[in-house]
Amino acid sequence: MTRLHSLLLGALLMTTPAFSANSIHEFQLKDIDGNAFAFSQLKGKAVLVVNVASRCGYTPQYAGLEALYQKYKSRGLVVVGVPANNFGGQEPGSDAEIKTFCTRTYNVTFPVLSKVSVKGDDMTPLYAYLTSAQGGDVKWNFTKFLAGKDGKVVQRFESKVAPDSADLAAAIEQLLK
């Protein structure tokens, strides 16, 4: 790469919205059906953003995430699943295959987005924002980022923290007061 290319890339990265965003409400991705999904529609709600995969040891967390969504959605929590194939090739399917898996296997009703990258050079800007706000790079599937009603990330929960954990429930309850 030439010095000019390096300077241009550096300038581009400095102007990327992910690094200047103030909340998740500034991002828009595609949903699992290819439609626009603007996080701005979630203003006033607490949001749990989770990078998901269908062939992972943590995949059964889909059931817990759905239960969490059902328990708290009437009080203002939205769970958002973000499929990613960054870890061990554990989400190799197409969006259509992922959607079928989620609905047939776990009866998922919370929003699931189109597959993106959550780590590395091709990381989606949403995850650049999430990881810069809380704890650095995502280390594995089913990492959870909890954002308040204002869209600001307030806490991060690693993969091993189950959706029905007391710590996660307490954090959600605090946001929904």
Can you walk me through this structure?
The strands form two sheets. The chain has a four-stranded mixed beta sheet with strand order 4-3-5-6, with helices on one face. A two-stranded antiparallel sheet has the order 1-2. It has a single domain, classed as Glutaredoxin. Residues 1-18 have low confidence and may be disordered. The chain has helices at 3-15, 17-20, 61-72, 95-106, 125-133, 166-176; strands at 28-30, 36-38, 46-52, 77-83, 144-147, 153-157. A hairpin with a 5-residue loop joins strand 5 (144-147) and strand 6 (153-157). The chain has 177 residues and is of the alpha+beta class.
* Count of individual domains: 1
Q: What is the helix content? A: 25-40%
Structural class: alpha+beta
What share of the residues does DSSP label as strand, in percent? 15-25%
State the strand order across the main sheet.
4-3-5-6
- Major β-sheet, in short? 4 strands, mixed
Shape: globular
For the secondary structure, the number of strands is: 6
Give me the strand/helix succession. HHEEEHEHHEEH
Tell me what the CATH architecture is. 3-Layer(aba) Sandwich
The end-to-end span amounts to 52 Å
Oligomer: single chain
Task: Please identify which CATH superfamily we are dealing with.
Answer: Glutaredoxin
The total count of helices amounts to: 6
CATH topology group:
Glutaredoxin
| CA radius of gyration | 16 Å
Q: For the residues shown, what is the average pLDDT?
A: 91
CATH class category name: Alpha Beta
Contiguous runs where pLDDT drops below 50 for at least 5 residues: 1-18
